Write the structure tokens for this entry.
Amino acid sequence: MGTPSGAGIAARIVTLLLADARLPTGAHAFSSSLEPALLDGLRPGEIPAYIRSRLLTVGTVEAAAALVVARDPDAGTVAEVSTALEARTPAESQRAASTLLGRGLIRLARSLAPAAAQLGPGVAGRSPHRAVAMGLIASVWGIPEAELVTAMCYDDAQTVAAAALKLEPGDPFAATGWVLGIAGTVDAVLAEALPVTGPASIPAPSSPMIDQWAQAHAARDRRLFSA
Amino acid sequence: MPENTVPATSTPAATSTSAAPAAEAVPHRSLRLGVAGPVGTGKSSLIATICRSLADRLRIGVITNDIYTDEDARFLRSAGVLDPDRIRAVETGACPHTAIRDDVTTNLLAVEDLEADFSPLDLVLVESGGDNLTATFSPALVDAQIFVLDVAGGGDVARKGGPGIGRADLLVVNKIDIAPYVEVDVDRMVADAVAARGGAPVLALSKNVQPTVAALREWVLALMERHSSGVHTPVDPGPMAPHFHADGEGGGYVHSHGEDETHGRDGAHRENGSHRKDEAQGRDEAHRREGARGQDETPEGPAH
């Protein structure tokens, strides 16, 4: 494709912002459940596999949900996708983390033109799920679908990698390698997410260990990360 | 994909639901007061003291920021100084600095939820995760901040300065009752602090020394008064961020300075150094001027 300009560049910048841990949305207190996984015995050597597992389950659900919202960003779709997401997120703690992060995202987006006018409470509510917020933001700035999914996968992988460096002794260069290593997995996520046609066809993989870890973590009183 | 897939936004009904609740859905905006300082200097205890000594005057809520536990929230709940439901813990994910400065989202949401759940609150105290000398609050989160040192941390710490020591709204030198046991000269430490702060307020405090507690109470009440009458201007010990001005009638507005073109550039604000506190005396006057002109700031407002 040609070199983007104007709106295309804005869309690229927004995509980069969404993938940037410095984005002020409150996400820095999260480990994508890596902390409880390690506490339950996940070995540090298994972290790259953990990253892949998350992308192929939680990550795929979120990517597909975001795409459905991005294609049809109205209140009705948001409501249906939210219900679909909740049905696919059995751990209450994960639903809570998702709406907290979504609330931070949508609040930030609403402070920025042109989203302020398009993302009112009538469309997005007060605390949308994170994937819903990502989809709405993508629609406002016209982020291409594959770029949105890649950014979401990158963010999840980088969240795990960054948390790993705070939770286990490790080489930051190696953690960077884990993130670069997700390319093939992102292909698989795209293959699942892009063909989704509506809320009902959002995939529903299960990840019982992640669900259990997330629930256990919510009840833990000494933890570095919120979830 | 077409750019404007968003429907010509809200239907009239949706618009009215988003606009109408203004009266009932916007809770009273409290004075938000941050408490920062190194680990172990007595931040939680200071908050308990404020709650205890002002319970008769103010409706108070507390947000704690803990790095690894919710220990501070538990301590405050068990201190019995406040309804336990009015004390909430925010987790900072190993980044206590970030949570009060670079990304205040989680704290801001917690403050707003507390204000909504217990409206009207007069004062919300936000305790930072104890860290080192460099952590300070963004005015995007708090309207004013107290920085806490203690004598046990060493008599020379105040002299070392730093953003919190130098430019917080109030510097507290805590635990003065134990100074003889740690061989610190309180008067000297306070004098060092006053010098480091260009004359801005320093309070030598012990929860066990009643007159010092009374002085803390008076400082908070005076701050409340300046805030609610609209003459208090948030100070950022670091770079300036958007902040809130009360209008004296229970409402107020948020504005920012600098390069944001949607707000007026306020020359008085930036250039008289009033945010920097290096001139303790000129400060109140500057605030009054700003309060008066802030009301009619427009995008076309005066440039520098």
